[in-house]
Amino acid sequence: MTYKISKSDQEWREQLSSQEYAVLRQAGTERAWTGELLDEKRAGVYRCRACSAELFRSDTKFDSHCGWPSFYSPLAGDTVELIEDRSLGMARTEVRCAACGSHLGHVFDDAPQTPTGDRFCMNSVSLTFEES
Ligand SMILES: [Zn+2]
Fold this sequence. Notes:
11% of the residues lie in helices and 30% in strands. By secondary structure, it is mainly β. The structure holds zinc ion.
């Protein structure tokens, strides 16, 4: 996969904080209930913290009680990339930013209360919020 935005490992390390780097570039996960965007309820847009691509809108954010910001749909189908993830002995679907390949979180089909049934479970540290 070739991304529109491509940087060297060194460039990402210089741009991102160590926590951002660990999640976005090494597929880490922030601790549940600690993310700054968990309780964000204002109207606006969520962007990739690594490359600023628009990824989600506030109208698809819902309270999933899982400890991470959750959305039932990305802004558009091609704003995120879905990748099969069999790490940690689990079959999961990883969600990456389609513009720069940075790790955002995982998607699960366990949200029957939403229009899509999907729960895009995102790390706050992977996103920035812009009120609109
Ligand atoms: Zn990105």
